[in-house]
Amino acid sequence: MSEHLLNIAQDYGSPVYVYDTSTIIKQYNRLTDAFSSVNKLKLNYAVKALSNISILKLFNSLGSGLDTVSIQEVQLGLKAGFDPEDIIYTPNGVSLEEIETVAQLGVQINIDNLSILEQFGTKHQDIPVCIRINPHVMAGGNTNISVGHIDSKFGISIHQIPLLLRIVENTQMNINGIHMHTGSDILDIDVFLYASEILFETAKHFKDLEFVDFGSGFKVPYKAGDIETNIEELGKKLSNRFNAFCKDYGKELTLAFEPGKFLVSEAGVFLAKVNVVKQTTSTVFAQIDSGFNHLIRPMLYGSQHEIINISNPTGRERFYSVVGYICETDTFANNRRINEIKEGDILCFKNAGAYCFTMASNYNSRYRPAEVLIHNGEAKLIRKRETFDDILQNQIEITL
């Protein structure tokens, strides 16, 4: 595999993102298998994780739906061939006008605040709406990705259920789904199941539900021996509870998830070339041709990406701090054991499929990299590297 990646770096330049469809398909099947005892299962891929249209087309071919958070992601999904009814739109803090525009496209609306719920329900009683509940359960590996706690901006508080029910009764709006999302990098299955019980209790208030959406946030391993969410155990326990709930509810509902990172993180790697090996009084820096403009997660979330020197995979291990070329501190790894690095070597960052390219920027007026997809062993370019023309494309020069 290292040789294949080296060829990709040579053919398409560095830095470059590379994704493997076989890993995506494996993860998708792993999740569907874990919940095989549920009659109606719907996986809505979270577009924000990796939004390249070729990736979306792959998920469409697998039978996935889409979880979207902006009208632009909805439009991407439609462009990729998804039917509107297979897209759920879960924004936060957007205008009523955007929600109405998306609703006109036939997409499932998911509303997470009482103000917009009342306004939308008053004007559009016949349009089905899902409600996002905040269960006040803290879950997630970092405060920036824990969204179900009591002081979160996401969701309608379970303590506001009486007011929520009054709005629904007064507007006579159609509530067809209940949703929650507690956070990302969830490890404790019992915490997830506890939050699910809160969602089940809330669902009892609504008589015409079609689905219950449990969000996602499943943790993937970031290094050898790393812990991850036990999807198989969760699938068994939650499936049994969901089937029992449906029996009590008197109707077979759809169990929905919105996985993003779980499906694409391990499928992606990021390749970057070492420009300089710099020795200081106490540290050896490997300085690469990239920075947090291309891979911000270590700086933003403290995430750890395993780094392999694919140019020298069997070399003697030494300690390096891997840093970028941005004119600020952008450290990918501190004092990390990596096979001996020389200038010109290609480093491979694992788990670069989720929230890497989608969070990339033109900071320092640097170009965003190319994206390459490996499908059936063949590398295909799915996004060109940006050029100087792309930097200037929407700028307007004026006479001063």
Automatic annotation (TrEMBL):
It catalyses: meso-2,6-diaminopimelate + H(+) = L-lysine + CO2. Substrate binds at residues 297, 301, 328, 355. It is an enzyme of class 4 (lyase). Residues 23-265 form the Orn/DAP/Arg decarboxylase 2 N-terminal domain. The modification N6-(pyridoxal phosphate)lysine is found at residue 48. The keyword Amino-acid biosynthesis applies. Its cofactor is pyridoxal 5'-phosphate. GO terms for molecular function: diaminopimelate decarboxylase activity. Belongs to the Orn/Lys/Arg decarboxylase class-II family. LysA subfamily. HAMAP family: LysA. Specifically catalyzes the decarboxylation of meso-diaminopimelate (meso-DAP) to L-lysine. This is Diaminopimelate decarboxylase. It comes from Winogradskyella alexanderae. The lineage of its organism: Bacteria, Pseudomonadati, Bacteroidota, Flavobacteriia, Flavobacteriales.
